[in-house]
Amino acid sequence: MSAVFSLSSADSARLAAADLPPRVREVLGALIGLCHHTLTAPLILTVEALEQTLLHDADHARNPQQQADLLAQRGQLHAFAGHFSERMLDALTDALVRLREPAAAPASAATPPPLPTMMGLSLVAEHEVDRDLLLVEMVRRETLRSANALNLLGQRMGVLAAAPAFDAETLPLAPQALCAMVRRLAERDGLSMEVQLALYRSFERQCLERLGDTLDRANALLAQHGVLPGLVYTPYLARSSATRRVITRSVGHERSGRPAPRTVTPMTGWGGSAPAGSWSNLMQDAFAGADAAAAGLTVPANTVLHELLQQARRLPAQPLALEPAALPTAAVDAVLARLQGQASAATSVTDLQGALLAQLRSEHGAQAQLAGHDRDNLDLLRLLLQQVQQQQRPDPVPAALLARLQVPLARAAMADPAFFVRDEHPARELLNTVAEAGARWLGDDDVDPQLLQRLAQSVQGLLGQDARTPEAFAAANEEIQQHQRAAAHRAELAERRHVEAARGKERLELARREATTQIDQWCQATQPPRFVQTLLRQAWADALTLTRLRHGEDSPQWRERLQQTERIATVTAAPASAAGITDAPLAADVEAALLQVGYHADEAAAVARRLATPGGEDESTSRTELSARLKARARLGEQNDGSADSQADAGRSARSDSEEACYQQLVTLPFGSWFDIDVGDGAQRRQRLSWYSLLTGHVLLVNARGQKIGETTLDTLARQMAGGQAQLVTEEKGRLVDRAWQASLSALRSLASRLNPEPKA
Prior knowledge:
By secondary structure, this protein is mostly helical. It is built from 29 helices and 7 strands.
């Protein structure tokens, strides 16, 4: 099942207004939705990583002037970052919608400066040369990395545009076009050249290095929509060998620890929307592959499976024709049709095989046997369901549904020779949906009772139909898919609320950090009394944080608070004297600010008097009493933030090489990636990495229903990954039935290799 990405109303209206054929409009709509789905997170991470870089450089500045310049650059970036991803996606959408319009001059990410001639010389700023060289090098690197995908996509986009194939300079999704879009936005907003250079580097790390995955998905999407589905550029080069050597040697490659390199794509879809694995590719990779092709062998996958099963049974391979004593498949299906009406006739495929054989012998004599291909199909189904059951939690409802599906699945496998090699078979889709409803990675809160009810209704309806046709399973699965799409939409809405709350906490923490930085600078410069510094870092920091959070760093209110901070530091740093007079206007301002963050009137007045008096003295209040009252107060947002986790991370030892590698992988993952995380007692729970911040290190995790599970940090999750307590779920192994089939093939190959070792040369 391919994932469906929805468009915003504005994009839908823009696409509807375009002068395009309906079929092209439909395909482009799906492609635009895919681009939004895959590029939104990298674009957000681009500006977040850039802000983090500027903050880090400011913290390690050599002098106050350099620090002030870096903070000013970050302030310049603030407005740009708020709408960067939306404007980039809007520009990309516009380019795709205008695909059939006459092409203008190719958009260049970097136009090189003119060459000097005898008629005149052109002076170019050094920074502009650096920018042009940087952009050209970025485009060159990514074009080389994704050359094959770009060529394929250029051919397919040419079909949609009714024009010759696009090249890397004119393709809307090519690195050249994307870099040109970034440059136009940066220049339009007047970013300084230093900020632009940092932006381009961050864009390459966070977006361009992930572009290959987007291009591959775009090619797959267009192929699924019938746009040059069989197009390839690279011929399949192979070495010769025999079929049996392919079967046994494949195990040797696995044991040697040198598997063929694969692109790891994190699974980001909700339940029911994960892309189905290609079973035909699994069979090709596992058995046929390069060696048989180079030898001129054309070996059907079913034949290879038959030979493999014969080897596992220690029997010589038999042809797939019916044996003389074997019963025809029609007779076997007639018995299965009667058993289908008995919902609890068998608890496993082994029991089903015994009941089936007993019934056949009672009707056709004691010598009745299953034909070879029927026996093989039942054995393969038994292996598959055994692997599925091993990944089930102890829940009686899904277990009962799996048991009732066995007979319909057996009939479908016997009726369809391509049951185990066909991509997205409806029977396997239904099996996967039922299996994942009871998967062991689900917690009690993850189970959807309404989904279980729909599954029970669909399975019950299937038992009353002829289960030999894929259409019967497709009809049974359709209502379930409608429910799952609605459930995924509800989960996405719930997740979005949690993400917005997490972003609010991030803004709160960043505002608090900036407030603390300003207070630390003035405390270091003026050295006020120790108790005054405590009041500044507790009470006054909350007032600064709230002002920064509400009004922003460019507001007059924030500048006024900074001026008040300077006055506090200057006044309290003066020595206390008997004639010391409280700065009444300053005290009034401080008291008003503290009242805004929830201080009681008497507490606010006491703190204000000390922060507006030389030496921080106040005879009307006791330091001990005031300290106790401040400690009893909750800081602004303290009950909700993740500062404890951040402090725990800061106190940990440095990450090891493996932990650092996991950390670097984490910060490149798209939002919505799934993890299987150990929760104790050997149990795992599937959790969704909904959002993370490169600035604060916070991570938001939700379950399959979009409900918040908890918050952690990137450092903690990286250490869990390195320790094996957290595993990234990839699209290749995201669906339970695909994982079960891979495990079944692996078990068969291993058994065949042990029982039939490859002869030595």
